[in-house]
Specification:
alpha+beta; four-stranded antiparallel β-sheet; 21% strand; GIY-YIG endonuclease; 27% helix; 4 strands
Length: 106
């Protein structure tokens, strides 16, 4: 993922094209993401929901909701070794049958 960037509306609007799916990480430290998530439809809007709660973000665009899920799984498993705040494995997008590329969960 690209980053870290300051989690501010102006920075998000400069960097993130609206209405694009993607995966993101957020944190209060610029070292590494501490929470991993995705947006199947609008990464720009999803990131703005975290303003004031976290200070930094990382992101990567996805080609589709399925692709966003696969990227999220990879980031989740990579970050889980670093004690992410995420307690649960990512869920696949609604109505899309796909397995995690790392552990095979559905």
């Amino acid at each position: 993922m690209r980053g870290p960037f300051a989690l501010e509306a102006s920075r998000i609007d400069i960097l993130i094209i609206p209405n694009r799916p993607g995966v993101y990480g957020i944190s209060n430290s610029s070292d590494a993401p501490t929470y991993i998530a995705r947006s199947d439809t609008d990464l720009n809007t999803a990131l703005k929901r975290w303003i004031g709660k976290y200070k930094f973000f990382w992101f990567e665009y996805a080609l589709s909701p399925k692709d966003a899920y696969l990227l999220e799984c990879e980031a989740f498993h990579k970050g889980a070794k670093k004690h992410l705040e995420n307690e649960l494995h990512p869920e696949p997008p609604e109505k899309i049958k796909v397995k995690c590329p790392v552990c095979g969960s559905t």
